[in-house]
């Protein structure tokens, strides 16, 4: 039941109606008995400044930020945390009496999810990341901050891969697409591309069923993460798991990056189990397409 004292948080983006963030955050507010509500605001490209002005005017406590606004919000807030400044991208904003601070919880969420799933520690690890977009850069930055011995970036655009590998504090390198040497011996292999996303869930196939790399190249001792979480098992994950490789989807990263936002906004410990159960149930109950 909402009241005049209900605190509002929201996700801004375009498109945004498909977002799972309302499911996750409202489950968290409910689990903690907080008088908060979270909704989705479609904000067209170029409208980030207006959305931030509305945040100040209406007293909206927190924003989650998704595409295409992460860079624009980073440039428009009053202050960025070190991780958001390094990436030039903000995925959440807190409103402190009209003073807006931007953060990026994607990288920390990735590491926390990986620790929760398999107890993996990045310090000293040799890592390979496929992709050089926003999610990939957040993962690469987090691995560098956590002390990874090497992060090899593989991307169709070598220039984009080189820029991602050159993030401050990252012992980065650039690998060629299809080059087995970039994968052999890696402790952690991450798909941060969209390959495998938007499959036909009724058949488990689709035009995006291409793999980021040959699963046979991944060492049996490695940990693999596919940041795609819809579908919950991509063809790449299926192939890796058939070889008994420890392979995980992006659901834990999704939940833990949201948990970081929740804790920042509310000051309460995030009910991670309730958040994960809510989104997993939502994904499982959706009709097949």
TrEMBL record:
GO terms for biological process: amino acid biosynthetic process; aromatic amino acid family biosynthetic process; chorismate biosynthetic process; shikimate metabolic process. GO terms for molecular function: NADP binding; shikimate 3-dehydrogenase (NADP+) activity. CDD domains: NAD_bind_Shikimate_DH. Keywords: Amino-acid biosynthesis, Aromatic amino acid biosynthesis, NADP, Oxidoreductase. Its EC number is 1.1.1.25. Pfam families: SDH_C, Shikimate_DH, Shikimate_dh_N. Residues 121-194 form the Quinate/shikimate 5-dehydrogenase/glutamyl-tRNA reductase domain. It is an enzyme of class 1 (oxidoreductase). Residues 11-93 form the Shikimate dehydrogenase substrate binding N-terminal domain. HAMAP family: Shikimate_DH_AroE (MF_00222). This is shikimate dehydrogenase (NADP(+)).
């Amino acid at each position: 039941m909402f009241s005049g004292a209900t605190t509002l948080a929201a996700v801004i983006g375009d498109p945004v109606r498909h977002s799972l963030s309302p499911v996750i955050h409202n489950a968290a507010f409910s689990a903690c008995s907080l008088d908060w509500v979270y909704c989705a605001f479609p904000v067209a490209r170029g409208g980030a400044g207006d959305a931030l002005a509305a945040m100040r005017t209406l007293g909206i406590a927190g924003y989650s930020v998704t595409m295409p606004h992460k860079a624009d919000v980073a440039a428009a807030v009053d202050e960025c945390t070190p991780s958001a400044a390094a990436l030039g991208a903000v995925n959440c904003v807190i409103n402190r009496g009209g003073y807006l601070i931007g953060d990026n919880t994607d990288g920390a969420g990735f590491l926390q999810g990986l620790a929760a799933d398999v107890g993996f520690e990045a310090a000293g690890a040799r890592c390979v990341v496929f992709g050089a977009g926003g999610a990939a850069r957040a993962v690469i930055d987090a691995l560098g901050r956590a002390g990874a011995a090497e992060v090899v970036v593989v991307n169709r655009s070598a220039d984009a891969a080189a820029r991602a590998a050159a993030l401050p504090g990252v012992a980065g390198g650039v690998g060629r697409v299809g080059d087995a040497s970039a994968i052999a011996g890696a402790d952690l292999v991450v798909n941060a591309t969209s390959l495998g996303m938007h499959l036909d869930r009724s058949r488990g196939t689709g035009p995006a069923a291409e793999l980021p790399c040959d699963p046979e190249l991944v060492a049996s001792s490695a940990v693999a993460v596919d940041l795609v979480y819809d579908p919950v098992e991509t063809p790449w994950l299926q192939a890796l798991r058939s070889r008994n490789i420890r392979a995980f989807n992006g659901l834990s990263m999704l939940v833990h990056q949201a948990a970081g936002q929740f804790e920042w906004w509310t000051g309460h410990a995030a009910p991670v189990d309730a958040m994960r159960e809510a989104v997993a149930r939502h994904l499982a109950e959706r009709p097949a397409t």
